[in-house]
Design goal:
Structural class of chain B: mainly alpha
Helix content of chain B: 40-55%
Order of helices and strands of chain A: EHHHHHHHHHHHHHHH
CATH class of chain A: Mainly Alpha
Oligomer: heterodimer
Helix content of chain A: 55-70%
Largest sheet of chain B: 2 strands, antiparallel
Shape of chain B: flat
Largest sheet of chain A: none
Number of helices of chain A: 15
CATH architecture of chain A: Up-down Bundle
Number of strands of chain A: 1
Radius of gyration of chain A: 24 Å
CATH superfamily of chain A: Cytochrome c oxidase-like, subunit I domain
Number of helices of chain B: 10
Structural class of chain A: mainly alpha
Strand content of chain A: under 5%
Strand order of the largest sheet of chain B: 1-2
Number of domains of chain A: 1
Distance between the termini of chain B: 45 Å
Strand content of chain B: 5-15%
Largest interface: A-B, 98 and 87 residues
Distance between the termini of chain A: 37 Å
């Protein structure tokens, strides 16, 4: 026993005061509580970003709308994009990783519990700082509050001359601070996966969720670094008279784009690889078959990790790079589709011949498969330079990446919520409400983002405040906006389901899905120590081995 | 509190029955602490002071120093931990689905890696390159017949990714351009090899009519996709394409690649063998002595 063991927790006999509960949560270093904090924090910001999206869509619902001013419109799409990427999707995915990785590899906590808390609070405070700009962004200039330079803040738009006041400063510092938090979490996940696995769990037996989060964390270390460097350089430009991105003084605006997108494109894979991880756990359980091609899935993920680092400038085909650079980035962009396609084949191979159970998590997973495939195909289309010249900066691109982020990642996140909700809370959600949520969201999603491709092909540019009533544009934009509201209604239903089921849901038990990974062997929610005795595993599906001693996987692996 | 908990452990000999093992009564866990929050808050304020007031940064420095000191005291000289009593959990993993269905592909084996026999990776590469040659011959023949130059389809292929090629005028499209040729060659070789590898992996799974799938259905579906999209996305490139010849060259690739692939000898699927063994690394004592022939 350690010499510094200062307190003994006893089983609670009475409900603690709310201040005590609050103190426990604020000071916690437990990976499960931090995971839940990440997720709740992300959900809170999802509401904010959702409201901003609805304001954007109301403004674009018909031509010559003046629902908001142009200045507010710019702030809305800037805050929506920044919030969704950095303060909704990343925290939620980090939250799931925090909660699940130690449980799935048979560990009692993350490798560095206090660093884990520090990383969460940095991320949280970064997000609060971004939204504090609504109050403090004016500075002495009265020049507007929240950032309005787009989530990419292209130079010279981010320079002091074009963005007076402090709004861009808040954007920069918020991302800087939360970036340090992301790096801390990534280091923690890598150390946990490498050093904390239970006996018998060599890398070839590790659950795919742990594998994929391991790869994602490595990518975070590589991708966040140039973003942080660029933010530092932008701060120097804005507050210390530097000229890194000042084209009038020998700087380069293109340099900012390179820095931003060498972060920005791997970031897409940083977000989607954990979504792949959810699919790789959920689809086998609801197909009642082991994952098809485990080694290939791992290899494809590592392949995506490498190739995705060499595709960033496909965001810059319209900048005017030379043809050799264009060709290189076109080919690498096409190449990254290969390992991604392999994954889709393997998920289909897992479902093929299985006894598929169409529970809510599986419905969202199937939605993910179809939609992510389409999202990938529209991405491959744009990898062709001449095609990209036609479509870049149009609503086709907006539709494409929302297909990735919403149709792919958000569907996977919903699947994960429904799949692990019983483990997090000890309660089952309402399957009926879950299915309502799924179908409403599917309808809303396709109304919005299928239709959004068409104005893009017709030439509607992105980032415009309003537009002329050209043929078709108004009707299409109206349909897109209606779809957005249907999605919002579906998300409200989802939140209602989560909240009501927490109090009134049926008891879940340890293993409600008859699953195979270690987190389902402990109580729901798991105890603070996770495992009373550290498990020893002999295959990729330790619970299968326990449930089927006559035919364990360990005999074949 | 004496507890007995069912663990997931297996004995060293790999016995397959669940053995209850004695769980500890208490477990040490890291103690809660506010110092990471204090440090994070201080760190944030240091930066926020750049936009507000130097006093905010100074407060941030103070909090950061306090946070660091508090954090160090949490872990030095020994970690501050709390003892958590173990709550008994008598859960025993049991499945309600006791019957395991077997796919009827290999009744002689309890578990089988499908396909039972597959082609080596080299088969896919050979097939892809052979298909690529067939496709190139047909495309160049088309170029000679239509434009009197084999460079016409090569420049067109390069134009799908290389902007300079797209800018070529009608007469220049028939001329040799080293950069377009290099890019077209590289692209053609890469895509042909990639699709060939895909054929090598997939055709054994469709064992009944591999040539129909790889030589006809796949290329026709692919051509249909390109046909429906290209006129919308890149009408300039689309205007140069003769679709009959396009489909013919795709089918030529598919038929030749599929034929070459299925002619290659098959090997037993060895997915269950360690990668080091498959890679030909000899490391006795490190790699388990399993050959893959031990399947029941």
């Amino acid at each position: 026993m350690s010499t510094n063991v200062s307190a003994i927790e006893t089983p609670q006999s009475a409900a603690p005061a709310w201040t005590e509960t609050l103190h426990e949560w604020v000071t916690t270093v437990d990976h499960k509580r931090l995971g839940i904090l990440y997720i709740l924090y992300g959900l809170g910001f999802l509401v904010m970003a959702g409201i901003e999206a609805l304001i954007i869509r109301i403004q674009l619902m018909h031509a010559h709308s003046s629902f908001v001013s142009p200045q507010v419109f710019n702030r809305m799409f800037t805050m929506h994009g920044t919030t969704m990427i950095f303060f909704v999707v990343m925290p939620i995915l980090f939250g799931f990783a925090n909660y699940l990785v130690p449980l799935m590899i048979g560990a009692r906590d993350m490798a560095f519990p206090r660093l884990n808390a520090f990383s969460f609070w940095l991320t949280a405070l970064g997000g609060l700082l971004l939204y504090f700009s609504f109050l403090g962004g004016n500075g002495l200039y009265g020049a507007g509050n929240a950032p309005d330079v787009g989530w990419w803040a292209y130079a010279p738009l981010g320079a002091k001359a074009f963005s007076p006041g402090h709004s861009t400063g808040y954007w920069t510092i918020a991302l800087l601070v939360s970036g340090f938090g992301s790096v801390g979490t990534a280091i923690n996940i890598i150390a946990t996966v490498l050093c904390m696995r239970c006996p018998g769990m060599h890398l070839g037996r590790m659950p795919l969720l742990a594998w994929l989060n391991f790869v994602m964390s490595g990518m975070v270390l590589i991708a966040i670094t140039p973003l942080t460097a660029a933010q530092m350089m932008l701060l120097v430009d804005r507050y210390l008279g530097g000229h890194f991105f000042d084209t009038q003084a020998g700087g380069s605006a293109t340099l900012w784009m390179h820095f931003f997108w060498i972060f920005g494109h791997p970031e897409v894979y940083i977000l989607v690889i954990p979504a792949f991880a959810f699919m790789s756990e959920i689809i086998p359980v609801f197909s009642r078959k082991p994952i098809f091609g485990y080694p290939v899935m791992v290899g494809a993920t590592v392949g995506i990790g490498f190739i995705s680092m060499s595709v960033w400038a496909h965001h810059m085909f319209t900048v005017g790079m030379n043809s050799y650079a264009n060709s290189f980035f076109a080919i690498t962009t096409m190449a990254v589709g290969v390992p991604t396609g392999i994954k889709i084949f393997n998920w289909l191979g897992t479902m093929w011949g299985g006894r598929i159970q169409f529970k809510t998590p599986m419905l969202f997973s199937i939605g993910f498969l179809f939609q992510f495939l389409i999202a990938g195909l529209t991405g491959i289309i744009q990898s062709s330079v001449p095609v990209d010249w036609q479509l870049s900066l149009s609503y086709f691109v907006v539709a494409h990446f929302h297909y990735v982020i919403v149709g792919g990642i958000l569907f996977a996140v919903f699947a994960a919520f429904y799949y692990w909700y019983p483990k997090f809370t000890g309660r089952m959600f309402s399957e009926r409400l879950g299915k309502w949520h799924f179908w409403l969201f599917v309808i809303g999603f396709h109304m919005t983002f299928d239709v959004m491709h068409v104005p893009g092909i017709l030439g509607m540019p992105r980032r415009i405040y309003t537009y002329e009533p050209r043929p078709g544009w108004e009707t299409l934009n109206l349909i897109v906006t209606i779809g957005a509201f249907i999605q919002a209604a579906a998300i409200l239903l989802f939140v209602y389901n989560l909240v009501v089921s927490y109090w009134k849901g049926a008891k879940a038990g340890n293993d409600p899905w008859d699953a195979w990974t270690l987190e389902w062997s402990v109580s729901s929610p798991p105890p603070a120590y996770n495992f009373a005795t550290i498990p020893v595993v002999a295959s990729r599906r330790p619970l299968w081995d326990q449930k089927h001693p006559e035919d364990p996987d360990s005999r074949y692996e | 509190m004496a507890t007995l908990e069912v663990s997931l452990s297996r004995d060293p000999e790999g016995a397959e029955t669940t053995q209850p093992s004695r769980a500890p009564r208490e477990i040490e866990a890291p103690a809660s602490t506010a110092w990471p929050l204090v440090l994070a808050f201080g760190f944030t304020l240091i930066f926020a002071g750049l936009l507000t007031s130097v006093s905010v940064s100074l407060l941030g420095v103070g909090l950061a120093v306090a946070g660091c000191a508090g954090w160090f005291r949490e872990v030095l000289p020994s970690e501050h931990e709390v003892v958590v009593p173990v709550v008994p959990d008598q859960f025993v993993p049991v499945s309600s689905r006791r019957v395991v269905d077997r796919l009827p592909f290999a009744p002689e084996q309890v578990r089988a890696w499908l396909p039972l026999r597959t082609h080596p990776i080299s088969a896919g590469l050979k097939g892809g390159l052979a298909g690529g040659v067939a496709m190139a011959v047909l495309a160049c023949t088309y170029g000679l017949l239509k434009a009197g130059s084999i460079w016409y389809p090569i420049n067109l292929l390069a134009a799908s990714v290389y902007a300079q090629s797209l800018k070529l005028g009608a007469s220049q499209l028939n001329a040799f351009h080293a950069d377009s040729f290099a890019i077209a060659l590289l692209l053609h070789a890469l895509v042909s090899s990639g699709v060939g590898l895909l054929y090598g992996a997939m055709l054994p799974m469709f064992a009944r009519r591999p040539i129909v799938l790889g030589g006809l259905i796949g290329p026709v579906l692919w051509s249909g996709l390109i046909y429906s999209m290209l006129s919308l996305l890149n009408p300039l490139l689309e205007s140069h394409i003769d679709w009959l010849w396009f489909v013919a060259s795709q089918v030529a690739f598919g038929v030749v690649a599929g034929f070459v692939v299925v002619q290659q000898p098959r090997v037993t699927t060895r997915e269950n063998i360690a990668f080091a063994i498959r890679a030909g690394v000899e490391a006795p004592g490190i790699i388990p002595q399993r050959t893959g022939e031990e399947r029941p």
